[in-house]
Each structure stands twice: as structure tokens, then as C-alpha cells.
Amino acid sequence: MANQKLKIEDLKSELLASNATWVAAENEFTSLSESEMQKFLGFTPAPGEASLMEREKQALASFAAFKVAKGAVGYPTTFDWRNVGGNNYVTSVKNQAACGSCVAFGAIATTESTMRVLRGNPNLAIDFSEAHLFYCLGGSEGRKCGGANGGWWPENAFNKFRDVGVIPESAYPYTGGDQACGAPANWQSMVTKISSYHAITNAADMKNWLSTRGPLAACFTVYNDFFAYSSGVYRHVSGALAGGHCVCIIGYSDTEQCWIAKNSWGTGFGQGGFFKIGYGQCGIDAKMHAVDGVVETGWNTNLHVQGLWSNESDRNVYVYLENLGWRKISPDNDNIVINLLTLFADAKANNRTVNVYLENSIIKQVYSL
Fold first, then answer.
1. Residues 321 and 306 sit within 8 Å (Cβ to Cβ)
2. C-alpha span between 105 and 267 (Å, rounded)
3. Cys-Cys link to 95, which of 49, 149, 259, 266 (CB 3.0-4.6 A)?
4. CA angle at residue 346 from 343 to 352, to 5 degrees?
5. Could you give the C-alpha distances from 35 to 31, 38, 282, in angstroms and in order?
6. Is 359 found in the same domain as 213?
7. What would the DSSP string read from start to end of 121-152?
8. What residues form DSSP beta bridges with 295?
9. Residue pLDDT, tens place only, 94-119
10. By its UniProt entry, which PANTHER family does this protein fall under (predicted)?
11. Which domain holds residue 123?
């Protein structure tokens, strides 16, 4: 069975007979054997967590409860971070290749777009290294592309993002396949960390977060028919269980009753690398993870000063920087606060840009241009 290939014509007939809401088509996955397709997954619930089947039951129960719930909602009927006021806050689709590293891709996709939203800058050039997160930080826990230690868990990935940090893609580009950590010797000076994250298990809360704060990371059960997805709203019709997979949820549609997801199988899958999956399907909404904030360390250059703020508390001074937002001036001592505030005030008054060095999101150094 593991070496059987997906019979696309049989699947199309089944979709037609079941009045399916999605379309199947030949792609790079439909010619693979079942065992080869499984290499593109990578989520297995952690010890003590609900199994894939239990997650499916939880998602269906949650969706059923959501449908009968009464009361007003605060979120829009549809939402997609690829088009918010004509702006796209979603970073490019990537390809995990034949390696069970989907958790790293889902976590990074969620963090990248969240950072763009926090900055209010859809064009922010941000690209984190999935290789560093999976091969180095996941590797420190013994995680591999496949086998007994194949794949990873979202909580562990986000814990590493919070406690250790992840370097840019340019410092350690991703290639699929088990490998020793290839991060540069000075990688610790390059990391960006998240401040915290949390899980959401209620569909209404998921939509509220999506429509106001940013995308979410989600995992679900993959059946063999999913590999042939081309368009429409996926709902499982046929095929054996392949395994678990994690993606980034970038929006939803109450009109179509679905979540909108960014996959990590390249742009040849689905609709340019994206797909839609029905509410309550395959455990997709049993639990999702949100990134609360991003802790930044490093230089930000050529910024306009747009506002200054302080109150009566000692050394409690903030500056609003173009494409960066409000950031606190280092409160280490009075001289630092006064000197940096003077530089910012002068730059604002004379419409000059500044270069700013952040350490854990705190402004430590400023150069006026």
C-alpha cells in the first residue's frame, strides 16, 4: 500500500459523485507514492497531546458549537491578509521539500506576517531561516526530517523562537534533507525573538485575532486526496491517512465556510501555494497558535521620527519611528535618556532620518543623518 500512487481520475469521479466543493488536478505530488508524499508532512502530536483523530473530533465539536452560538460578533465576514486595504502582509510561499519540517515553516510564516502587521509595513523585508529553526533548534531536541524522530511540535518551535531566536534566511538558506546545523559562528548576534505566543481553541477568537492582529499557525490531518488539491474549499472525500501537517492560516471566509491557508509546498501546489479548507475539517481548527509580539535586536536605518511621548515616570520616554512604531528609549541612566531624546527631537524638527540600534526592542543607540 505504501508504494501506491494517487489515481487522479478515480479521485475526480469520487469528487463529482459526492458534490465536492473542491477540484483535484495532476501536480508534482500526484505522481509520488504514498510513502514519498508523507515526506512532505511533519506534524505528530506531542506526547500527552490529543491524537490526530482526537483533534478531528475536537474541531468538529467546536464547529458544531460555533454554528449554534448566539450573539453578535466583532469580526468581518471575510478576511485575507493578502489584501488588506490593497496591501499584502503575507510573505512569499516557500518549499519544505521532502522533509518533515512543516512546523518550522508554519511558525516562521506566522511570525513574518505578524511582524509586518505590527510594523504596519506590508513591504517590510523579513525572511527568517527555517533551516536554523528546524535543523539547529529542532535538531538540538533530536528532531529529523523523517523516521522515529521525524517532524516537530508547534509549542516547541515557538518556545525556541521565544527563548533562543531565529536568524535570517540569508545567513542559513534552507535545503531539504537531514543535515548538521549550518548556522554561522556568530549566529547569536543575528537572532530575532518573539516575546510570547499563545494557543487559541475557539473559532470566534481565531477570527477575531486573524482580522485584527495577524495570521495563525495551525496543524491538521492530511489524507491522500489532499495532495491533489487544485482549487475550491477542501473537505476530505477519500484516501488513506497520510499524517499530520502544519501551515499558516492567513484568513477565512464565512461565505465559503472555510479557512484560507499558506502552505509550504511551493507555488505549484493549490492556488499559487495557498489553499482553502472547510471549517471543522481534519482537525484544522482544534487549536491554532498566535504570536503576541516580536523582540528585535539590530540596526534599523533611514527612519523618520514621527512622534515623541513621555509621562511623569522616571526615564519613561518613547519615540514613534516610521515603519517601526513606538519604541522605548533605553532607561539605563538619565544621561542616555536626555542625549537620545535630544537627537530624536532635533531629527524630527529638521525632518532628518535616523539610524537606530534596538536591543530586545529597546533603543540603545541613535545616529542622526
1. yes
2. 14
3. 266
4. 95
5. 12, 5, 20
6. no
7. -TT----B-HHIIIIIIIGGGT-BSSGGGBSB
8. 193
9. 999 999 999 999 999 999 999 999 88
10. CYSTEINE PROTEASE FAMILY C1-RELATED
11. 8-293
